[in-house]
C-alpha cells in the first residue's frame, strides 16, 4: 500500500536528517578542552642545555682554549707582580680589563640562561658594580677564618699561574684538584669515589663515559662556599597570576 | 480522491508524525548522552582496547603496540617519537642516594624531571616534591613545607629533602593493585603499564611517600617540549585516568645513562648507580656514609637513601 505523498516526504527528510546526525556524530572531532600553552618555567633555565656548566681556568687550559689572559707576566713584570687590592669586605677590586677573567669562574648560567646573559656595569673607576644579591661573588673568602685569604698560600709568588701545595709540590692550573686535595682530603676521597660533585653521562661504564667535574668547575677557589640559588617555582602553579612579579621564570630573575 | 484512508491502515499521518518525532527526539537524546564519550579520546582503536597485558605480549606483538603508540603520539602532537620497550639488564639493581648535607632546595631536579618525563604541564604533575624541613632533627614529612619561595636558597634553620618514588623492595603500591598494572622489575624499578591501569588510585593511597600521581584529566604538553626518546613503561604520554610516578628515567637508565635529576643537580647531591657493582658511587656511599631511610619503621625497604657528609 503506497504511503501518502506528504508522509513519504517527511519520512525521507527524517531519514536524511538522521543520516546527517549520525555522520556528524562519527566524523566531526570533539572540541579539545582549552589549555594554556604557557610553560611555567623557561626551558633555558634548566641546566641540561649545553654551556651551563662554567669553564674554569683549569678546564680552559686543558681544553686548549685561549688562556692568554691568564699569563699575568705577559704584561706584568716578574719583579713587580700585579698588586691585588682587596677593598672593603675583603672583595678584590678588579680592573675593568680583567673582569672576564674572574667573572668567568662563576657558573652564571646556573641562574642566567645563555639566551639572557649577564650585563656588567662599571663605576667611574672601572670597578665592576656587583649587584646586591651577588656581593659574595668577588670576595676573597676561602674558609670561615680568614687565615687562608693569602694569595701565596696557593699561588706561586713569582708566577701566579703556577700553584703549589703546602708541602711545596708544584702544580699547574690543570692540576688544581690536587691542590684542593692537599687540604680537603676526605672530600677528595669522596670525589674520587663519585660521592661528591656533579655527575652526568653514563653510570654504565660499558655504555659510555661518565661526566665528572673538577673542584673548580663548581667552587670558586677564592670563595668556595656556594652563595645561594634562586629556587625554581614550586608546585600548584595551575593558574599563574598575571602580575609582573608573580610566577616569573626563575631563570630571568636577576635578583637585584 | 476525497475518501478517507481506510481505518484498518493503522498509520494515520498524525500518529506517524507523533511516532517519528518521539523517535528522532530519542535518537538525539541518546546521541547527546553519548557525546562526552567522544572526548575520552582514549580508546582510539579496537587494537588498543584489545591490547594484551604487558607481560603476555610477545616481542612481535610489542613491536605492533609500540608502532601504534608512536602513531597516537604523532596524531596528537604532530611529531613522531621513538618509543622503545627497555628491558632490565642482568646483574643490575638500581639504588639512589641523596645527600641531605648538600641539597639546597633549588628545585632544578623537579623541572628537569618534568621536561624529561613528559609530565603534564597543565594540570601540573611533578614526580619530585622538595620539602623544606625544620632543622630540629625531625624527618616527619608532615612538618615539611613544599610551597617555599624565598629569594635565595638554602635558608638557615632549614634543610631540604626532595621526596620521590623510593622504588621499595617491599612496595605497598604493588600489593594493592587489583589488576597488577604496577609491578617491580628485576632491576628494582616499580613500573606502571598505563594501558592496563584502571585508575582506582589504591596505589596512591598505599604509598607512604606520596610518590604517585593521578591524571585527573588528559595531560597537556606543548609539542615543542615533548621528549621524543620514550619508553613504554616510562615517559610516553599518559592517558586520562591513569597513575604515574618516578620510574628512575627507564628510558635513560636502562640505556646506561644517569637520570635527568642526577645530571641537573648543581650541588651534586644526587647519586645513582648499580648497587651490585662494588665500585659504583652508591656502593661507596652505603659503605662509608651515614645513611637514612625515610619511614624505615614501615618495612618498605626503599632503594632510595638519604645520606650525610658529616
What does this structure look like?
Chain A contains 6 helices and 4 strands, in the order αααββααββα. Chain A starts with a helix and ends in a 38-residue tail after the last helix. The C terminus of chain A is likely disordered. With 256 residues, chain A is mainly α. Chain B is an alpha+beta fold. Chain B has a domain of 215 residues: Alpha-Beta Plaits. Chain B is 28% helix and 15% strand. In chain B, the strands form 5 sheets. In chain B, strands 10-2-12-11 form a 4-stranded mixed β-sheet. A two-stranded parallel sheet of chain B has the order 1-8. A two-stranded antiparallel sheet of chain B has the order 3-4. The longest helix of chain B is centred in the first third of the chain and has 28 residues. Chain B is elongated, with a radius of gyration of 26 Å. Chain B starts with 12 loop residues before the first helix and ends with a strand. At the A-B interface, helix 1 and strand 3 of A face helix 1, helix 4, helix 8, strand 10 and helix 9 of B.
